[in-house]
Amino acid sequence: MLVLIGVLLVIVGFAIRLNPLIVVTVAGIVTALLGGMNPAQILDSFGTGFASSRSVTIFVAVLPVVGIIEFFGLQEQAKILIG
Questions:
Q1: pLDDT digit string (tens) for 33-51?
Q2: 50-81 b/e with 16+ CB inside 10 Å = b?
Q3: Can you spell out the DSSP letters for 8-73?
Q4: Across the chain, what does the average pLDDT equal?
Q5: What CA dihedral angle connects 52, 8, 25 and 67, to 10 degrees?
Q6: Helix (H, G, I), strand (E, B) or coil at 77
Q7: Separation between Cα atoms, residue 17 and residue 8, nearest integer Å
Q8: What's the Cα-to-Cα distance from 4 to each of 10, 28, 37, 43, 82, rounded to whole Å?
Q9: 79 has pLDDT over 90
C-alpha cells in the first residue's frame, strides 16, 4: 500500500504546479525505493526505459542540431531562398 505514495506525489506536485519532469522522476524514485529496489536497479530501470523509447532518443539527438542551425541563421537563409 505504501507504493501508492508515488501517485499521491504526482497529484500533489501537479497541483502545486511544479516541473512535471521533476515530479514524475521523484515519484518514480520514491515508489521504487518503497517497492524494495536498490539505487542501482532504479538507475537501470530508468536507463532501460529511456533507451527503449526511440522517439525520446531521437528527440534528444536532433534538438541540439536544430538549435545550432537556428543559431547560425536558418531562418534568414530560408527567407533568401524563398525570396
A1: 999 999 999 999 888 877 7
A2: eeeeeeeeeeeeeeeeeeeeeeeeeeeeeeee
A3: HHHHHHHHTT--HHHHHHHHHHHHHHHTT--HHHHHHHHHHHHHH-HHHHHHHHHHHHHHHHHHTT
A4: 87
A5: 90
A6: helix
A7: 14
A8: 10, 10, 15, 20, 55
A9: no
**The residue to which cell 534568414 is assigned:** 76
Residue with cell 534528444: 60
AA letter at 11: I
Please tell me whether residue 38 adopts helix, strand or coil conformation: coil
Q: In whole angstroms, what separates CA 26 from the centre of its chain?
A: 12
